[in-house]
TrEMBL record:
Superkingdom field: Eukaryota
Species assigned in the record: Ploceus nigricollis
Any single Gene Ontology cellular-component annotation: nucleus
Gene name of the encoded protein: Xrcc1_0
SMART domains: BRCT
GO biological process: base-excision repair
Record Gene3D superfamilies: BRCT domain
Signal peptide: none
Protein name: XRCC1 protein
């Protein structure tokens, strides 16, 4: 049930993050939409991140994607 958008990443890192997330079963959107559940941010204190939080989204960093990939499953977004 993860639908994510990426913010603040340039290719090729952006493409690697997208590929890792979709390989785990996440859906990707090129920009934040109300159907997104997660915003993967390079910088957490941006207007886009604030908007995502206001709309009930979870803001995470790239390390969350890499950790999920290492474990082969969706991990908690908490600390």
């Amino acid at each position: 049930g993860v639908v994510l958008a990426l913010s603040g990443f340039q290719n090729p890192l952006r493409a690697h993050l997208r590929a890792a997330a979709t390989a785990l079963g996440a859906e990707y959107r090129p920009d934040w939409t109300p159907e997104c559940t997660h915003l993967v941010c390079a910088f957490a204190r941006t207007p886009k991140a604030a908007r995502a939080r206001q709309q009930g989204g979870v803001v995470v960093g790239a390390t969350w994607i890499w950790a999920c990939q290492r474990e082969g499953r969706r991990l908690s977004c908490g600390p």
